[in-house]
Amino acid sequence: MTKPPHAGSADVAAARLRSIPEASVARLAVYLRMLGELAEQGAETVSSDELAAATGVNPAKLRKDLSYIGSYGIRGVGYEIAALVRQLERTLGLDHLRAVALVGVGNLGHALAGYSGFGGRGFPVTALFDVDPDLVGIHINGIVVEHVRAIPQVCAEREVTIGMIATPGPAAQGVCDLLVSSGVRCILNFAPVVLQVPHEVEVRKVDLAVELQILAFHVARKHLAGQDPATVNGHVIEHASNGSGGMLP
Amino acid sequence: MTKPPHAGSADVAAARLRSIPEASVARLAVYLRMLGELAEQGAETVSSDELAAATGVNPAKLRKDLSYIGSYGIRGVGYEIAALVRQLERTLGLDHLRAVALVGVGNLGHALAGYSGFGGRGFPVTALFDVDPDLVGIHINGIVVEHVRAIPQVCAEREVTIGMIATPGPAAQGVCDLLVSSGVRCILNFAPVVLQVPHEVEVRKVDLAVELQILAFHVARKHLAGQDPATVNGHVIEHASNGSGGMLP
DNA sequence: GCAACTTTGTGCGTGCCTTCACAAGCGACT
DNA sequence: AGTCGCTTGTGAAGGCACGCACAAAGTTGC
């Protein structure tokens, strides 16, 4: 199941896409952002060492990550930023916009709806949903909040390809089912629930409470272990000129 | 019950803590939440199969995870929920409260400050900071927003052990340095920047834009590959009675 | 008290990810 | 034109995590 039938460029691309390790994909997105910042600063090329330092990654790992999308580096020089950005965007599927629907306009949802980092990066939030009558009908960032029952119709109309769920836990599975039945195949879940989905649907979960608990574990560990620097396997990040130019709220 | 007639329980605990794989720690937090829900529903014991199904994890992996914190299961029966919860809380360092400071009360920060999932789980947000004069002085959930320059003093007073950074990217490193110099050793970073910290400081990063880009990659993959069900390595999660009882916004 | 059944705890093989180390390739300088 | 220095791309090794499969241990029924 690994061999492409014939060697047309589309098949090659598909084979490559499929074979990129999940861990690498996550880092590619980070490289892409850093490259954008470097381009803004007027840089035209970067070496793997520079880019690795700026993103806190091992240089060899970075080169291997980039090798998955092809050879776009010049030996003795580095990577041409513009070309690399273009290729990364194509690989990550950022060459056309992906409409995003957000369900749950409560506390967190409201913040996500107003988060400028999405629209500016090719992910316009084009639909908002909730069940609360007090919320349905209001506008956030120029988008009107619709009732959850309108999900199938609105998602179809606006060609939504990604759904974000920021509802309370108990409501999440129902909302998820609605999204899936509306053709949404990728879901970003903020609710503290494990979603049950058909195998063709991709779910990523962001669990803030779990993140804090992981940190708490490390606090406890440091306390118990005393703070012997040798035994703590903390990751040290070398130098790296401070990257600036973000885009959060 | 089974084995450990504790000999030097502190040392044993420390050794154990150090050796728990990072991936397991993340799952332990998930188990803990699910166990809490089960307890609320009146259950007294769970088998590894039940808990695994409810959390979308392989049963063997779950048992191995739990084995890292000791033998608290009863063969032929399962795990006694109350005892397991207690042990998990101790292992994750949830046996006493951890004061959290949040820097950046903009769009996302405001939502995090109001997020009930933190305080209810042993992570009271006890300090808020920003640089915006319009925000400094206002109250959110009964907490007053202070100026960033007050970080050292306030963090010391309120014994903050965890810092959350929800500032724009360019401000993050400066804020981080302030937190670290105030004695904060664990940081949850929402800013799209790789923080440079001393090796004894633990940083976890939540990057919403990257999460969406990873999803976009999978959209692109599905498109290119057609949707042959066999070649897509999606994870299928079996049955599992729908968990309810969450605690998001 | 014994046998059959259930469920935990774990040794082990497998595969993925990371990291090292080095050859190949490219540009610059003489 | 040739050589030198720098940087990429990758083969190979090590480590970690996953999941199977089974023995150990407990419970239930007779």
Secondary structure: elements and pairs:
2 copies of one chain form a homodimer.
Chain A: H1 9-19, H2 22-40, E1 45-46, H3 48-55, H4 59-67, E2 73-74, E3 78-80, H5 81-91, E4 99-103, H6 107-113, H7 116-119, E5 125-130, E6 139-140, E7 143-147, H8 151-157, E8 160-165, H9 169-181, E9 186-189, E10 202-205, H10 208-224
Parallel strand pairs in A: 4-5, 4-8, 5-7, 8-9, 9-10
Antiparallel strand pairs in A: 1-3, 2-3, 6-7
Chain B binds a DNA duplex (30 and 30 nucleotides) through α4 and β2.
Question: Quick recap of the structure?
Answer:
Chain A has helices at 9-19, 22-40, 48-55, 59-67, 81-91, 107-113, 116-119, 151-157, 169-181, 208-224, and strands at 45-46, 73-74, 78-80, 99-103, 125-130, 139-140, 143-147, 160-165, 186-189, 202-205. With 249 residues, chain A is of the alpha/beta class.
Describe the structure.
The structure is a homodimer of 249-residue chains. Chain A is an alpha/beta fold. Chain A has 10 helices and 10 strands. The first copy, chain A, has helices at residues 9-19, 22-40, 48-55, 59-67, 81-91, 107-113, 116-119, 151-157, 169-181, 208-224; strands at residues 45-46, 73-74, 78-80, 99-103, 125-130, 139-140, 143-147, 160-165, 186-189, 202-205. In chain A, α9 links the parallel β8 and β9 (186-189). The radius of gyration of chain A is 21 Å and the shape is globular. Chains A and B meet through α1, α2, α6, α7 and α9 of A and α1, α2, α6, α7 and α9 of B. The structure holds a DNA duplex (30 and 30 nucleotides).
